[in-house]
Amino acid sequence: MVDADTASAAPATALAAWDLLGGRPGTVYAMHIGYAARAAQKGRTPEAPGYFLKTATSLAAPAPVEGETDPATVVELPAGAEILGFEGEIALVIGRGGRRISPEDAWGHVAAVTAANDLGAFDFRRADKGANVRSKGGDGFTPIGPTLLPAAQIDPADIEIRTWKDGELVQADSTSTQLFSLREIVADLSQLITLVEGDVILTGTPAGASTFLPGERVEVEVSAGELSTGRLVTTSVRGTEPVIGVSAQPKATPEQWADASGRPLSDFTEPEAPVLTPELRERLGRVALATLSSALRKKGLDNVSIDGLRSTQPGTTMIGTVRTLRYVPNREDLFRSHGGGYNAQKRLFDSLREGDVLVMDARQQDRSGTLGDILALRARHLGAAGIVTDGGVRDLDEVTEIGIPTFHAGGHPAVLGRLHVPWGIDETIACGGTSVQPGDIIVGGGDGVLVIPPALVEEVVAEAEVQEEQEAFIARMVDEGHPVDGLFPMNTEWKARFEAERSGAGTSGSAGASS
């Protein structure tokens, strides 16, 4: 591995790529989103191919590097920058130019296929407003190679790509899952632009692209049958020369960290002070669900119960902060683009935090599962406080055994795709007949499930505690023989007796009280 502090190799540029490409490199075109799993990860699926341009000097071929056993490309992370993103990609090298090429003829214009690493210094993205000129156009920011595979010997619909970070496989996909075929990509670009010999087209990255630090190693390999490019090795060093004052300065924002790494934004932001503190959680656990419902009704909130569900853990109280997931009705094309891979459901389960309760809007359709044992295990491992779905649960016996409280509409063996497409994360949803928002406080027990607006939870708990004290007082008075008339509910005299006892001014609520 290259020593990030002492590496002597200068960042490679297009000069090193000339021999590989057989001449001066041409224009570099790069796709925004090319694979179905990447679209699901990003939460958006393009209707048509979309591109940005990279500079010819961003191209770099591997070369011998001191300290490396294999040829490698060494890229410079600009001084002051922190976020270096990698994206393994299949690159096409145009061998015969043309304009308005048809999809049927497009593969004949491709001379070679190779591996590429679409690198980006994400600290500069805010200044380019989506153009990626500086963030992805820097010298050496498009390593390619190490060998070219002849396109004429390759089926463009059956090419595989894999990426490793420090030896761990992090990306694996094939052109069979691309949203637009390689033929369509070449044809599409040529409709308004004349492609020329030597142009390079990056065809998008699969799910799993992330970030790496100076000293870490990224390898990309493209294969087709028995043909392989070999592994394209990329390492990096920290730059020492800052950009001049007039230039946009690097700025690592939480949004760019999240975008580059593929991780949730919450991983890079300081969490707000929780509404549901341990003390408040304990107080909620001491009052009955029915009492909380009465307190909410006094606040004018009648429609806050999630109805028709049963619990996998009867006798257990569930208390937590809401995260939401919305399913839409299954439509085959939408499930292909949003249902597989690292979809919204899996992303949300992976982002759960301690004390979260995941609430799912399955449109009260119980003829399909909305989660199973694997996801329940993930939620338990992350410390989630519970799961609520107005749909079905697969592997219900196993989910019950896992132990995380799960309120559901019943068990069902069918997979998600029978009825549902996972769609929206952390938005207002409907579940079991009530509206639920991220950040709401949720309490579940033997009487059902209640949703409490976070702005009201302190008041609701305080009122519920007083009501519980009143009901305990009333129960004791009834047990002592007093009739319920005037006592339940308490009239003015009984209220005065209760307040006196509560404040310690009286000795017994029964003395002198009458019906």
Automatic annotation (TrEMBL):
Binding-site positions, Mg(2+): 395
Binding site for substrate: 372-375, 394
This protein's name: 5-carboxymethyl-2-hydroxymuconate delta-isomerase
Record region (Disordered): 247-271
Matches recorded under Pfam families: FAA_hydrolase (PF01557), RraA-like (PF03737)
PANTHER family reported for this sequence: ACYLPYRUVASE, FUMARYLACETOACETATE HYDROLASE FAMILY PROTEIN (AFU_ORTHOLOGUE AFUA_1G02370)-RELATED
E.C. no: 5.3.3.10
Organism ancestry: Bacteria, Bacillati, Actinomycetota, Actinomycetes, Micrococcales
Recorded GO MF terms: 5-carboxymethyl-2-hydroxymuconate delta-isomerase activity; metal ion binding
Top-tier EC class: isomerase
Keyword terms: Isomerase, Magnesium, Metal-binding
InterPro entries reported in the protein's UniProt record: Fumarylacetoacetase-like_C, Fumarylacetoacetase_C_sf, RraA/RraA-like, RraA/RraA-like_sf
